[in-house]
Specification:
149 residues; mainly alpha; 0% strand
């Protein structure tokens, strides 16, 4: 039977890993799309959008992993489920919502270059999901996270 601390860690790690990956991913997209590729518009507004979206996506994704994966799946199945959750949450729902909102705000190039916008988001979400799954549910990933605490 796991200790209380092990249980807390098992549920805390998905939230922290998801928040970290989503905030870093949003910051990268902010720099690439919001500053370099499409510099028009308020950089402060774009940064606020990216920060809020990064935290919201990370919290949602982490909570879904806690609800659907932790204590239910292990190893490869857990990594696959985590990748799918990341892809559906950030690569589909958030990506399409952001693209639709960008038709109004014109911050990120989603209206002008929708295919590139959607593909970039989908690829990053798959990569983030695989990385999150590997960190959370593989033995080397668990060891790395334990050392980071």
């Amino acid at each position: 039977m796991p200790t209380a601390e092990e249980t807390r860690r098992a549920y805390r790690h998905p939230l922290l890993v998801s928040l970290g990956l989503c905030v870093v991913g949003e910051f990268l997209l902010f720099v690439i799309y919001g500053v370099v590729a499409f510099p028009d518009g308020s950089v402060l507004h774009k940064l606020a959008w990216a920060a809020i979206c990064g935290v919201a996506m990370g919290a949602t994704t982490g909570a879904l992993i806690d609800l659907m994966v932790v204590d239910y799946l292990e190893n490869v199945a857990a990594v696959a489920a985590t990748t799918l959750i990341f892809f559906l949450t950030t690569g589909v729902v958030c990506n399409v919502l952001c693209m639709r909102l960008d038709r109004v705000f014109r911050y990120w190039g989603g209206a002008e270059h929708s295919t590139a916008f959607l593909v970039t988001g989908a690829v990053l979400s798959l990569a983030g999901g695989l990385l999150a799954g590997a960190l959370l549910f593989s033995e080397p990933g668990k060891t790395l996270l334990a050392r980071a605490e």
